[in-house]
Design brief:
Oligomer: heterodimer
Strand content of chain A: 15-25%
Radius of gyration of chain A: 34 Å
Order of helices and strands of chain B: EHEHEHEHEH
Largest sheet of chain A: 6 strands, mixed
Helix content of chain A: 40-55%
Number of helices of chain B: 5
CATH superfamily of the largest domain in chain A: Histidine kinase-like ATPase, C-terminal domain
Largest interface: A-B, 18 and 21 residues
CATH topology of the largest domain in chain A: Heat Shock Protein 90
Strand content of chain B: 15-25%
Shape of chain B: globular
Structural class of chain A: alpha+beta
Number of domains of chain A: 5
Shape of chain A: elongated
Radius of gyration of chain B: 13 Å
Distance between the termini of chain A: 65 Å
Number of strands of chain B: 5
Chain lengths: 690, 132
């Protein structure tokens, strides 16, 4: 390894390949009949082998080589369904080795993997290889059978064989029987059909349709030499009957096979349709979800470069704002017009940059397949994961941030939502549960539904708990709507692990989820119906890198509020302030709205000296029902601001969306009014409860 | 072939204990005797050449050289060699591999006395005439 940069490249390429590998294994798991993922895996490991060898990790390269050669064999032979899980588990386990290796390398530990480990992998793959390599029954087609039977000396037999109950290695037993018979004649067909017979779930009895020049006694002798045959019946058939039986058996088998295949096809078609529909729906909403987005025409860009580009452009925007402002003061029309013209390219660049930050949710959401699989194994639940709208794009940062809430919701849905297979059957539901992750865009937000078809929330239990905790008496508790009850679920520590039948664990867990979503400026919604299922909806903003903000002053400090949150700005009129139950409200259109003095809210009491007549009242709206009025000192201009993460000096950093630097170079804090409104609502609910 | 001629068995297993058990069972049969024991594949091959047994019981997982390789090489020496795999449970893939390489049959450990007797009777019944 020659340099740090080489190493970086190695890590990035290896990580991509490993990620790809995992996706392919998952799609193999989904549809083991599909040989495409095996082929893809084969090439991926081939590349990994070369890559790791070049980087000097000989053991790791050998390790990949074993994958490669194993997959090369698997490519040609179908993987038996019975062993599917072992096979995939083995792949997954080995993948973990690769991941751990990369993790180590990233930390600077450049040691190769243990050689013994390579041997282990080799051995475990060898055992699979031989197992999957069986295609020892090579049945004849009808034409071949006709040809053989034309020869007078050939006789046709039906051989019924029952193996001893204690026979464990049935496949090997079968192999030995077939080998012995084929040495002395030709097996034409079997019942069950050869393909089914070779599969792991072998029955103890089967029939062989066999042509040989030997007599019945000879066949009997051949079979007598073989162990573990409990019973055998050899019947001589005339060639006409023999052909007729084989023909019937083949037809029957082919129809059955076609039926089961068409069933799968139908299912595939259905799922395909859903995703196409989703694409159409999304394109309706965004309007520009064209085929261009589906084509892969991309280059790899280091994310650090992207971030830098974003920051530089942000600074340019700020400087341009500054220049415009100076020009306004100087009243220079010519330059002002030129600067105005710059608006268009600036907007264009902004849009491109904005799009660069977007990634499809797909990459992250595909990983959840594995999570679902692992948690399902852990809990003994049976379910399938449906991903919808995986082509929806979202700000990469936000996608990263919602990962932990998503993982939490998924785990909870499987642990507490989806019932055990037995329970589901008892309820008359399909044994196989469904967990659906549906992503869609609406206005400036991304919505993600995490929907299960499990037991649903037991609202009666929550009511009981509300009463037993003394929040309400039992009469009042009856009046609480489901939405009211959700507020309790989201209260930290309301539900505890011992309440397994409510939605255990969700109490504390969901509070964290909600917290995180709020931090992102999003919302969280619950819908649930007993025995039908639960749907959690996360709503997060599409992006928040550059936004238009209203600047204002509180005392001498600059602040901003995103213009999209502002309904109206008024001059503050103390006469409009009203006190209800000790809380201040500001009347707008004779409707009292919660009033928030930003200086107090941000703990700036000592600084607020401004005469109240000059103050402004900013009416901000979260949604139709929830709004509040924020009082600040002096209104300034509106600006496109670049939002940067911010660590707070002003108490609660949750109330600050981020910071930005104005054209003049001053630091300006962007206030997250939505978060403040939300916490007001929660305070109100909680104080009502007390 | 004379009726008095006993059939010769070579036991291959890396565990002395297993070899002893097999030997005790096999020696109970009048017409059969154990003429050699090998504890790995290398020994098995050289003993096969030396002793030319009628039947070999073959363990699969052994040091030096495993049973699959030994099976393969013995069959190169004599394509009609009678090799019966004696394997532990859970080694189906290995056993199949050995069968593909040409092992005649297999039994699983722990084996019962009757099973071994049955193998010997079935497989060696009419084989002397075919043996070269």
């Amino acid at each position: 390894m020659s340099s740090k940069d080489d190493m970086k490249l190695f890590i990035s390429e290896a990580e991509d390949l490993i990620q790809k590998t995992e996706e392919e294994i998952l799609s193999l798991e989904e549809n083991p009949e599909n040989s495409k993922p095996i082929k893809e895996l084969f090439f991926t490991f081939h590349t990994l082998k070369g890559l790791t060898a070049m980087a000097g990790f000989d053991n790791l390269s050998k390790f990949c080589h074993h994958f490669e050669s194993f997959l090369e064999n698997a490519k040609e032979n179908k993987v038996s369904k019975g062993k599917k899980n072992d096979f995939i588990d083995n792949l997954f386990e080995s993948l973990d080795v690769l991941r751990n290796f990369i993790k180590r390398v990233k930390k600077g530990d450049l040691s190769d993997i243990d050689g013994n480990f390579v041997e282990d992998i080799k051995n475990s793959f060898e055992s699979f290889e031989t197992e999957y390599g069986i295609t020892f029954i090579q049945p004849l087609n009808l034409e071949e059978i006709n040809q053989i039977l034309d020869k007078k000396e050939n006789k046709s037999f039906k051989i019924y064989i029952r193996l001893e109950e204690t026979c464990v290695f049935k496949k090997v037993r079968l192999f030995i029987i077939f080998r012995a018979l084929n040495e002395n004649g030709k097996i034409c067909w079997t019942n069950p059909a050869p393909e089914d017979l070779e599969k792991a779930t072998l029955k103890n009895e089967f029939e062989i349709y066999y042509i040989t020049q030997n007599k019945k006694e000879k066949i009997s002798n051949i079979l007598d030499e073989i162990l573990e045959i409990e019973n055998k019946v050899i019947t001589l058939l005339n060639s006409g009957d023999f052909k007729e039986i084989i023909k019937d058996l083949k037809e029957k088998w082919e129809t059955e096979k076609a039926e089961s295949m068409s069933g799968e096809l139908l299912l595939d078609d259905y799922e395909e349709e859903v995703s196409v529909e989703e694409i159409e729906r999304v394109s309706e909403i965004i309007g520009d979800f064209s085929e261009d987005n589906i084509k892969i025409t991309s280059v790899k860009v280091n994310i650090e470069y992207l971030e830098e580009l974003m920051n530089y452009f942000g600074e340019l925007v700020i400087m341009k704002n500054h220049i415009s402002q100076l020009l306004k003061e100087k009243q220079d029309r010519t330059i002002a017009r030129l600067i105005d013209k710059m608006d268009k390219p600036f907007l264009d660049i902004q849009e491109i940059l904005f799009n660069l930050k977007l990634v499809r949710v797909e990459a992250t959401f595909r990983k959840y397949k594995r999570l679902v699989r692992d948690v399902a194994n852990e809990t003994g639940k049976k379910l399938r994961l449906i991903l919808e709208g995986t082509n929806v794009e979202i700000d990469r940062k936000i996608l990263e941030e919602i990962n932990s809430p998503m993982v939490h919701l998924i785990r909870n849905a499987i642990y507490h939502g989806i019932e055990s297979p037995r329970e589901r059957v008892k309820k008359g539901k399909k044994e196989l549960g469904t967990l659906k992750l549906k992503t869609y865009r609406r206005a400036g937000s991304i919505f993600i539904d995490v929907q299960d078809d499990g037991a649903g929330i037991n609202y009666d239990k929550i009511r009981e708990k509300v009463v037993s905790r003394g929040y309400y008496n039992s009469e009042d508790a009856k009046q609480l709507s489901n939405e009211d009850l959700h507020q309790f679920i989201l209260m930290p520590g309301f539900s505890t692990l011992s309440d397994a039948d409510i939605i255990s664990g969700r109490g504390i867990g969901l509070a964290i989820v909600v917290e995180k979503i709020k931090e992102l400026g999003g919302t969280f919604n619950i819908q649930s119906q007993k025995d039908v299922g639960t749907k959690f909806t996360i709503e997060v903003p599409f992006t928040r890198a550059i936004l238009r903000a209203q600047l204002f002053k509180i005392a001498d400090d600059l602040f901003a509020i995103p213009t999209e949150n502002i309904k109206q700005i008024y001059f503050y009129n103390p006469n409009q302030v009203e006190y209800i139950e000790g809380e201040q409200y500001y009347k707008i259109n004779s409707k009292p709205l919660p009033l928030i003095h930003l200086n107090e809210h941000l703990n700036m009491f000592d600084k607020s000296m401004t005469n109240s007549h000059k103050k402004i009242a900013i009416w901000c709206q979260k949604d139709e029902e929830n709004s509040a009025v924020f009082i600040a000192d002096k209104q300034l201009q509106q600006l496109d601001v670049v939002v940067k993460p911010f660590k707070s000096n002003y108490s609660d950093s949750r109330d600050i969306l981020g910071s930005t630097i104005t054209g003049e170079g001053a630091i300006c804090l962007i206030i997250d009014v939505l978060s403040i409104i939300s916490s007001k609502i929660n305070e109100k609910i909680i104080s009502n409860l007390k | 072939m004379t009726k008095n001629e006993k059939k010769k068995v070579l036991i291959v297993d890396d565990a002395q204990f297993t070899r002893n058990m097999l030997k005790n069972i096999i020696n109970k049969i009048e017409q059969i005797e154990v003429i050699g024991e090998a504890s790995n594949g290398v020994e098995a091959i050289s003993l096969y050449k030396k002793l030319n047994p009628d039947l070999v019981t073959m363990d699969l997982v052994m040091p030096e050289k495993g049973g699959i390789e030994a099976t393969e090489e013995i069959l190169k020496i004599n394509s009609k060699a009678m090799i019966v795999v004696v394997s532990a449970l859970g080694q189906e893939a290995l056993v199949l591999e050995a069968a593909k390489k040409g092992a005649k049959d297999f039994i699983q450990k722990p084996f019962k006395t009757e099973q071994i007797l049955e193998v010997m009777n079935r497989i060696l019944k009419n084989k002397t005439s075919e043996k070269k």
